[in-house]
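Handout, page 2. Input:
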Amino acid sequence: MGKTVLPFMACALLMCQGCFAQKAQDGFKSITMEEAGKFMREEKDFILIDVRTKAEYDGGHIPGAVLLPNEEIQAGGNPGAAVTSLLPDKDRTILVYCRSGNRSKQASAKLAEAGYSRIIEIGGINSWTGPVEK
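Output:
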């Protein structure tokens, strides 16, 4: 029995290492909206970025969020003038959200590629239970 279990466990371990390496390679951390709410209550030095469209943002956003549509964040390591003027400090903590979590992951990856070092992707506003501002 030990001869069949050991190779299986070794393969599983190698596969998990690949998953963790990919996560670290993304250059950002993901947390839940619940964890984000706690973070925002306890921390002060961060910027909250809403990467949805202006119409979505105007329809309701998390209080204190700044609009920076995902489409305005350029890929390829140069995020664009809109990003650098809004986010001049690449070491400041940036919380990123969208509607469901897809665009926030895309935007977080582009920001990480541009050298921003403290990115926390928090998913979508559709799972936010706190107040919403219009």
